[in-house]
Amino acid sequence: MSKPSRWPLTADGIRFITPHVLVKRLQNHALAKGLFVTAMGYYPTASGHAMERKGHPDHILIYCTAGSGFLTMAGKTTEINSGDIFYLPAGSQHSYQASKELPWTLYWLHFDGTLANDFCQHINIVERKFTIGVQPRVIRVFDGISHLRHSSHNLAEFIQGGHQVQALLSYIALLVQQRKPSAINTFDTENLRAMMQEHIHSKLDLDSLAEAAKLSKYHFSKKFKQVTGESPISYFINMKMQRACYLLDSTPRSVKHVASELGYHDTYYFSRLFKKNIGMAPAIYRKAKL
User: What are the GO MF terms of this UniProt record (predicted)?
Assistant: First the structure.
């Protein structure tokens, strides 16, 4: 059960709880039961704000955009600052409170659904807190979801709100992945992409890429795949195929000419690679675009 917040809601604050009857409808709707909003709020400069829970039925996501505060879970207290986001899984025991000296500004969201656990695992905030910075895109989504309080409990609007939450959680997961030191600080990914772009018209092997990253081929390939989800050579080939699409779309050059421009002197080999990556042969792709 939750203890009530000791912070009185100001005129600038927002607090909304989805009616129980509507939650039941969302739980039973094919397009909504994956993820739906159960409560939401926005607390600006929340002096005296504090909450303690021994457990709760839904998942909670809280985003600090200014000021600071403290989160306590499993006997460990963590300072929360502007740009930090923290996730509280369903059933967790926790407490949090605003700093007395510099009280935080918070967006908060309660959600549930059959996909809730999967999304929370996808975000993978191991310490329950992660710094994503003050992200205008994230704030816009929170603001958009908050408009549900004006929807007169319209089911369609709450279905759309649930899909907004899915997009928000997916984006946060991407930010978390991009900011993991083990994944992105090992080498300069932008420099590697630039190197691939410079060789888009020719060949580039794994040895050269690993040397540029100052890593062994094994460690380079492993780290590159952690960041992009693809092997370095597959990534490079995909860049070439995207360039081929551009040339087929924007120029009258023959397939043979396009293949040669991208460093493939065997047109049939190029066509096989193109079909594997794009899903159709180059000639069919061009006709489909006309």
Answer: DNA-binding transcription factor activity; sequence-specific DNA binding
Listed as own residue / partner, the contacts of 247-256 with beta carbons closer than 8 Å and 24 or more positions apart are 248/282, 248/285, 248/286, 248/289, 249/286, 249/289, 255/282, 255/283, 255/286
Assess contact for 149 and 16: CB atoms under 8 A. Answer: yes
* pLDDT tens-digit series, residues 112-160: 999 998 988 888 766 678 888 888 888 988 988 888 888 888 999 999 9
Residue type, 287: K
Residue 7: what pLDDT?
A: 45
Nearest one of 79, 173, 163 to 120, comparing CA atoms: 173
Whether the CA torsion 263, 269, 272, 273 is positive or negative: it is: negative
Best CATH choice for the domain 14-179 from the list 3.30.450.20, 2.60.120.280, 3.90.170.10, 3.40.50.620: 2.60.120.280
Indicate whether 177 pLDDT > 80: no
CATH of 186-289, one of 2.60.40.1520, 1.10.10.60, 1.10.357.10, 3.40.50.300: 1.10.10.60
Q: Where are the alpha helices (DSSP H) in 31-73?
A: none
Confidence category of residue 11, pLDDT binned at 50, 70, 90: very low
Could you tell me the two tokens for 169?
Answer: 């959680």
Give 182-231 pLDDT, tens digit per residue. 544 556 777 888 899 999 999 999 999 989 888 899 988 988 887 778 89
